[in-house]
Amino acid sequence: MRAQEFLLERWTANTVKDYFDSQTGNQVKKSSVSVSQPMPGCILLTFKSIPDLTRCFFRLSEFANSGQNVDMVDFLDHWIDREGQADYFKFWDGFNITNQGFESWVKKTREFSQAEQVLIDIVKNKKPSTQKWCVLGITTDDPATRTHELFHAKYYLDAEFKHKVDQLIAEFKQDSAYKIMAKTLKQRLDYIKNIDEEIAAYLYAGSQIKMVFGIECQPWVKKFQELAE
Ligand SMILES: [Zn+2]
Do residues 137 and 169 both lie within one domain? Predict the structure, then answer.
């Protein structure tokens, strides 16, 4: 998931300075995360910075994708580039985790980092009472990422919405743009699972299609966005 080439660098020298001017140490504080419930069954955590967000969600998200925790060997082989940078922690700006993913990670993990413990405490306190629920993590910067992650939540929680999305995706598969998007997700962004859902999320959010996939898809963006109405 080395996607820095596709995404904007949102963590600049200035934001680092602004942020750490009001912080002491390297701890993620509960007070720097705001929590809301944008739809029933969904808790949305909004962080002030990408490093705080990624430190809370990195292992959880990778566990939800692969079923196991990233160990040190994986980390060294996979997450640090040839210049010695772990860029992921500067640019990955959105996460969505289902109740299943969250609960099985908590059960199967022995030790949590300080940042992860903050996330766990928040989720334990604010956990929705619905049978299915999910937790999203974003930063304040980008409305398109917020829309993208809210799409995943709605797709998971709202069966009627999911049905409509699945029908539209089946139609979109006839378009050559589908192949381009699927190929980019698999080959360049390391996606293995849920390719169709991911494509739908990009079309629904709309504004990142050109940047991530290098194509225009306006008529389809319109169709996917109409599903929200
Ligand atoms: Zn997504």
Answer: no
Cα of 198 from ligand 1 centre, angstroms: 5
Q: Is residue 206 part of a domain?
A: yes
Cα–Cα dist 193/118, whole Å: 28
Residues, beta carbon < 5 Å, ion ligand 1: 198, 201
- Regarding whether 137 and 162 lie in a shared domain, the answer is no
Structural element, H or E, at residue 178: helix 176-183
Helices (H), 141-175: 143-157, 159-172
Q: Within 13 Å and on the Cβ side, how many CA atoms surround 89?
A: 14
pLDDT in tens, 8-52: 556 666 666 666 555 566 788 888 899 999 999 999 999 988 999
In a domain, 80, yes or no: yes
Cα 199 to middle of ligand 1, angstroms? 8
The per-residue pLDDT for range 44-80, each reduced to its tens digit, is: 999 988 999 999 999 999 999 889 999 999 999 989 9
Structure token pair of residue 69:
């925790």
For the record, the structure tokens of 228 come out as 């929200």
Give the domain range for residue 208.
Answer: 158-229
Ligand 1 center to 86 CA (angstroms): 21
Q: Are residues 69 and 118 in the same domain?
A: yes
Using pLDDT thresholds of 50, 70 and 90, give the confidence band for residue 156.
very high
Same domain, 124 and 13: yes
Q: Does residue 148 fall inside a structural domain?
A: no
Q: Is residue 123 part of a domain?
A: yes
Domain count across the chain: 2
Report field, pTM of the whole predicted structure over 0.85: yes
